[in-house]
Amino acid sequence: MSRRADVSVAGPLCNYLKVSLNMSTLIHVSGTARENYTTDASAQEATQNGLVFNLSNQRISYVFRVSREGILEHLHFGARVSPQTDYPSVPRRLHRGCVLEFQDSLDYNLTDIPQEYPVFGTTDNRTPAFHAQNCAGNTTTVLRYVSHQVVNDKPALTGLPSARGADHGASETLIVSLGDAELNLLVRLHYTIYAEHDLIARSVEINNQSTSSINITHAMSSSLDLPCADYEVLHLHGTWAREMNAQRHAIPYGRFVLESATGTSGNVHNPFIALMDSTTTEHHGDVIGTALVYSGNFAISVERGEFGAVRLTSGINPFNFAWNLAPGETFTSPESLHVFSADGLNGMSQVWHRFVREQISPPAFKSQPRPTYLNSWEAAYFDIDEDSVLALADRTKALGLEMLVVDDGWFEGRNDDTTSLGDWFADAKKFPNGIESVAAKVKAKGLKFGLWFEPEMVNPDSQLFRAHPDWIIGVPQRSSSKGRNQLTLDLGRIEVQQYLFDCIDKLLACGDIDYVKWDMNRTMSEIGSFALDASRQQETAHRYLLGVYALVGRLVAKYPNVLFENCASGGNRFDLGMLSYMAQTWTSDMSEPIGRLPIQNGASYVFPPSVLASYICPVPSHLNGRQVSLQTRADVGFFCAARGLSLNANDVDQDFEALAAHAQHYQQTAQDAVEGSFFRLRYDQNEVCWQLMSADGARIYLGYFHILSEANLPLRRIRLVALDPQQQYRLADNDHVYGGDALMHLGLDLPHVCAMQRSSADYLPQGDFASRIIVLTRQ
């Protein structure tokens, strides 16, 4: 346990707060707190060492200090820096021509000062982390240091998902309180550091202690000010069926913003960004990665200011957002996570992957192999009933798969996508004995049973909508735009949450449903709530997300052993917020493997294979018309932990033996897909190479994918990574044994790509879209 000494601090908002002088192993506090933080410092106060906070594990440090004005000044985020009495590089006070000075503090201009939580209106003209209109109608705020506290572990966020703290005191949290004495506003900044993860978790609580409401328009989760340098960013962009495309470019002067205003985190921009030196590669160089634990409208802004410094802010998108904070109320921001790696982009990804598995994924499933499955969608679409489901169960069992998933089409009146969303009870004609009876019969065959839902949506042609037309997201006197013939339910309303909970709970209570696929097939439009007054309409989208989290949180708490899969037309809500409740995500509706390669490659910058889901799809692809071999379809899906197939009876019969063999291989390697380490070895427009290594390092799976065949290509090799240089590894294809050092430094010859296969050389299959999984085992 940490030891603390509480010392009272005088000054604004401090009459009831304490400073904790921490003696912990991860958070180090040095220096002296001033009695009163103003611009009028005495000579002694101006020269004394102020408070400095150093959050460090064995590899990284996050350091900031309190200026004599009470402003939190950022010093460092990166490789470990031991706690110092003085630091060699700190914010400098100097005169600049035609630049304002902060409230008569000589040569102190906030535009030139790296800050922890910047505000608007007092000499800093860059994008603020906090912006609000007060009762006087202006938007000027001054946040000065009030107190701090160090606590063991990591407090959960109210109403929001967040990373778990580590066991046995292996994480600690610093809470720094800032105050505006004129507004009686208290802002608490949370910083959590982990002993075993190279990551800082940040969030903010805003408490209105005045007698008047304030209107918050910016409440970012974090702000990170970095010194002038030659940075580049990498982000993930896309659209439906083309999510997660990685793009890297320089940071210009001005602002670059990734954002969503659709009510979901979205498929256009994932709520993640990496910021790095221009010389950084996959395996070398400094990288800072930022991701939000949030599933709604977000903004990540990178701004290069007039003096070249870079500001990275992340949080709720301020566009079309406002929050009326009444006296005594507290607003909590989503959590923002910041990773640092000195080992390039792959090093950053290893930090993310381990952290997501250990501190984000639901504990019951973080190491649990995923069942192989048959999904009914592309086998039958809406044309399902009890007899066809039981026939599919027999086929599932014969293939050696472990679970049957009944997709869309099972509930009352659902024969196409124009009707019945919201009426979550079995169609009496298709399932006269109910879904519970079918689930029990499927389970009796030795299979698991899964069921598809889309709880957040409603069709206008449904019993639910006819009974409660005001339960949708919408605005008065305007027609609601539709997507897939459906509208969005207002989950900000308690009664909507309760209705959905009761419907789903009634089905799950039978005890025979092992898996839920939770879908969401449209984004928001005409954003408003019939339950909120005019002053709170811009709270609608965030309140909706709080309602989603509340509903899902109740369900997974009651049914901790049911495997939930997050889906939103594929990757339209693929984020750490949903993954806090659901162990896996349907990565994309693009199930065709060549289209999947860039999606899974992009996702791997943040997400480990343990949270990715895929299935073997029909050919030619319904989305792009490609005719791709079964081998390649199976090989791309191999690098997802949740693996299955969705094929009709003719497709299954045509490739029955090969599909059964793939099912067996998937099961044999299921543990490695969940717990193993994934590495990007090569990615370009025509060639992809990935490495998956078991958690104990004993098995290595090398995926080699070649897109378009060409004549007379060069011979290729690939260098493996993270092997033990002192160990020997046997190649399963030919029993050759190689040293780990040779495989990492010389590389392994890859199969040759050539249509004219006239020798005994090792070739990929002829033609386009070829692949191979190469397996090595440690001796």
TrEMBL record:
Its keywords, alphabetically, are: Glycosidase, Hydrolase
**EC top class, in one word?**
hydrolase
PANTHER family reported for this sequence: ALPHA-GALACTOSIDASE C-RELATED, GLYCOSIDASE FAMILY 31
Q: Which residues form the Glycosyl hydrolase family 36 N-terminal domain?
A: 71-326
Give the Enzyme Commission number.
3.2.1.22
Give the family from UniProt. Answer: Belongs to the glycosyl hydrolase.
This protein's name: Alpha-galactosidase
- Give the Pfam families listed for this entry: Glyco_hydro_36C, Glyco_hydro_36N, Melibiase
